[in-house]
Write a structure and sequence with these properties.
By secondary structure, the protein is mostly beta strands. The protein contains no helices and ten strands. The strands form two sheets. A six-stranded mixed sheet has the order 2-10-9-4-5-6, with no helix packed on it. A four-stranded antiparallel sheet has the order 1-3-8-7, with no helix packed on it. A hairpin with a 4-residue loop joins strand 7 and strand 8.
């Protein structure tokens, strides 16, 4: 059974930083590309960033490029998202899942972690 547990969200002022974590289980995490997504009320879930299974290749949405860094620790089955220079537009519920390079996310999603950027 696929399980995805996100954590690390919170309230931060504009310009601040947060580091999100996602612990994955129930599938061979180290063999899959992984991604972060986010959703705000009334909008579709938005792709944020992806990382190849090896960690050697990453991709980012234009809106977060140069501010966010995706990484992974396959030994810990954990995905990370370092978010710097946060803006109010980054306020959303953040989710992790497999995905990228033609690999579709699992139908099952975790609870997500809320990021709120506000002064």
């Amino acid at each position: 059974q696929v399980q995805l547990v996100e954590s690390g969200g919170g309230l931060v002022q504009p310009g601040g930083s947060l580091r999100l974590s996602c612990v994955a289980s129930g599938f061979p995490f180290r063999e899959e590309p992984a991604s972060w997504f986010r959703r705000t009320p009334g909008k579709e879930r938005e792709w944020v960033a992806s990382i190849l299974y090896s960690g050697r290749l990453t991709r980012y949405a234009d809106s977060v490029d140069d501010r966010f860094t995706i990484s992974r620790d396959n030994a810990k089955n954990t995905l990370y998202l370092q978010m710097n220079s946060l803006k109010s537009d980054d306020t959303a519920m953040y989710y992790c899942n497999r995905g990228g390079w033609g690999v579709q996310p699992f139908a099952s999603w975790g609870q997500g972690t809320q990021v709120t950027v506000s002064s």
